[in-house]
Amino acid sequence: MGAFLAYILVVAAALCGYANSQLVPAIMTFGDSTVDVGNNDYVQTVFKANHPPYGQDFSNREPTGRFCNGKLATDITAENLGFTTYAPAYLSPQASGKNLLVGANFASAGSGYDDNTAALSHVIPLSQQLQYFKEYQSKLASVAGSEKASSIIKDALYLIGAGNSDFLQNYYINPFLNKHYTVDQYSSYLISIFSNFVKSLYGLGARRIGATSLAPTGCLPLARTIFGQHERGCVSSFNTDAQQFNKKINAAASQLQNQLPGLKIVIFDIFKPIYDLVANPKKYGFVEATKGCCGTGTVETTFVLCNQKSGTCSNASEYVFWDSVHPSQAANQVLADSLIISGISLIG
């Protein structure tokens, strides 16, 4: 698989005509905890991953603000694209000077398409992430000059990872929403926000945009534990909701590509690879797919229960999930490998 991916990237690089090793000049990331690399370390919220055992398998063996034992799928994707450093969390001290040339990460754990989702967790809403991106553009121009900055903005890869929190941390537990709006209505509302967000990015110069689908939320250990009741396996209704949302976001992306000249947009399907990992863990070298590595692995996430005293499994690489919600680094590697081919169209 590694050799095959390397071959694809070499071909892609030749097609794109990039002179350096990076297939795109920069990566900009927006969304939730699946892509946050530490912005929540600088926000007054309980949704933080700045403590052990988070980061135990990262290069420096220290917490990085990532909700994982090591690398996120977006980190691995950056490496596959030729980056030797990761775009910094925008609120971190590292987001300055020449570090801005490789992009920035604006994501915030607990956020979603719906700004009310972020408000419940006191984290950075997507609308504010967009404002930070506007700030970033000004800072980039100061570092690189207006002409080079414009080129970076135009050719950069824009990644959006959101939506799961809108359902798990808002709709399903919020009676104001679930008693007054059907899943279909709320799903359509989120899609309208997604479409407007893409249009805003496009208006600010973005031309290569990749967004993730919803995961099979009913298969997450947290969902199984809290919402599964007597149902064996995944919570089927949650997975059905996710699949319906995914159909809508794919349709919206197609419409946006037809509407906006020069836009390349891809919806990365993470539902199928994660579902396959849960259904057939041994096929991918995993031994546990029903609970996470941290603590009991059923409800632990953030400092509340996933901490140094809660204990971890002996080998995180054998677990599909790191905590009750987030994939392990090993699972993120599988995700990144499965998404690289569809991502080629964004850089070709």
From TrEMBL:
| Protein's UniProt keywords contain Cytoplasm | no
Q: Which UniProt keywords apply?
A: Signal
* Domain of life, source organism: Eukaryota
Query: Residues of the signal sequence?
Result: 1-21
Query: Any stretches that span the bilayer, and where are they?
Result: none
The answer to whether keyword Signal applies is yes
What protein family does this chain belong to? Belongs to the 'GDSL' lipolytic enzyme family.
**Protein name, entry field:** GDSL esterase/lipase APG-like
- Please tell me the species this chain comes from: Salvia divinorum (Maria pastora)
Provide the organism lineage as a comma list. Answer: Eukaryota, Viridiplantae, Streptophyta, Embryophyta, Tracheophyta
